[in-house]
Amino acid sequence: MIAPMPFTISLVLVACCQMEHYEVGIQLHCLCLKSGFVNVVLGTNLIDMYSKCQNVEASRRVFDHMEVDRNVLTWNSIVSSYARNSQPDEAMVLIREMLRSGVNPKQATYNSLLSSFSTDGHFDKCKQIQCRIIKEGFEVNHYLMVTLMTVYSECNGSLDDFWKLCSGVREWDQISWNALIAGLSHLEHGEEALTQFSFMREAGVETDHFTFISILSAITIASALRAGKKIHALILKYGYASHLDVQNGLVSMYARCGNVHDSRKVFSSMFTHDVISWNSLLSGYAHNGHGREVVELFEEMRRTEIKPNHATFLAVLTACSHVGMLDKGLEYFELMVNDKTLPPPPIEHYTTIVDLLGRFGYLNEAESFINNMPIEPGPSTYKSLLRACQVHGNKEIALQSAQMLLKLHPNDPAAYILLSNVLDDGGCWSDGAGVRKLMYDRGLAKKPGCSWI
C-alpha cells in the first residue's frame, strides 16, 4: 500500500475546497493527524477547506493549533474565513492581531475583508481599511479600488463620497464600469446608472451578464419601461437571454415597471426557474395590486420542487393583506412558521399579519398577536396597528400603541401624527392638537410628501 504524502493531501484538500466536500475534508484532516503531517501548507489548506464548507469554528481551531507555523497565507485564510462567512468584526480583530505579530496583510487580505462589509454599520470599518490601503500604497491596485466602489455603494449611501472614490480609479475596464453601474443602482440613482451605461458603450467597453443585471436593476428603480425594452433587445442581441440571473432581472424589471404581462411572458419562456425567479414574479404582481393572481402563482409554485423562502412569503402575505384574504394570509403564515427548514421569520412578516388583522377590524386580535410575538415588535408593527385604529376609530388601543411606539422611537414624528389623527377622527380635537403641539415643542416635523404626478 502506497502511503499518501503531505503534498498529495494538500492537492486533495484544494479539490475539497472547490467542490465543498466537507466529509472528505474531515477524513483528510484525521489522516493528517494520524500520520503526523503538520506543516504550514497543510494547516492553511485545512483552514481554507473548513471556511469554504462554512465551518468557521473548525477553521479557527486549526489556526489556533498553528501558533508557531503561520505565514501570511495562513493569516489571509483565517481572515477570509470570517469575512466569507459574514463576520467582519471578528475579521477586523484578526487583522489587528496580524499586524501586532509583525505580518503585513496583503492586497488579497484587504480585498476579502472589504467584501464582507455590506451595511451602514460597517462603513467606519471600511474607512479604516481604506486608510490602511492608502498607507501601504495599495490604492493603485485595480481590484481593491473596484471592491471599495462596491462597498461604498452598499455601506455609505452618499453619492458624493461614491463619486470621489470613483475619481481615483485609474483603469476603466469592464470590471470598473460594472462596479460603477452596480454602485449607482445600489444607491438608487437609476437615471444616472443609465447615463453611465451609455458612456460605457460609447467607450467601446464590452458588456457582460453582470452589466445587464445591474442596468436592469437601475431601470427598475427609475421605472423606465421604454429603456428596459431597449436593454431587453440588447440582451437578445448579445446572447444573454438564456442566462438565469438576466432572465430574473427581466421578470423583475417588467413587473416593477407595471408591465406584468411581459413579466409573465419572460417567466414562461424560461427553461428553468429558481426561487428568485418566482419571487420576482410574485413580488411584481403584488406590487401592481394583483393579489389573487399572487395566491394562484404561489399555489403553482408549491407544486414545484422549489421551496419558498422568506421573500416569497412576504410577497404572498402582503398580497393577502391588500386584497383582504384573511384566512389565506393566516394559513400561509402558519405554513411559514411551521416550516423547520426556514429560519424564524423577521419582523416584516409579523407586521404584515398585524396589517391584515387590522384591515378587517380585528384590533384586539392584532394587539394580542403583537403581545405574543416571539421577537421584539418594531416601530413598523405599532404604526400598522395605529393606522388600523385610525380607520376603525379605536382610541384606547391607539393610545397604547402610540405609547409603545414612542418608547422605541421618541423622535419619530409619524407616531405623533398617527395618534393625533386617531384623536381628531374620534372628535377629541383638543387632545389631537395637544399631541401635535408636543411634537412641535420637541422640534419634530413630518417630512413633506411628494408625487410623480
UniProtKB/TrEMBL annotation:
This is Pentatricopeptide repeat-containing protein. Pfam families: E_motif, PPR, PPR_2. Residues 1-19 form the signal peptide. Keywords: Repeat, Signal. GO terms for molecular function: RNA binding. GO terms for biological process: RNA modification. PANTHER family: OS07G0203900 PROTEIN, OS07G0578800 PROTEIN-RELATED. PPR repeats lie at residues 71-105, 106-140, 173-207, 274-308, 309-343. The keyword Signal applies. InterPro entries: E_motif, PPR_At4g14850-like_plant, PPR_rpt, TPR-like_helical_dom_sf.
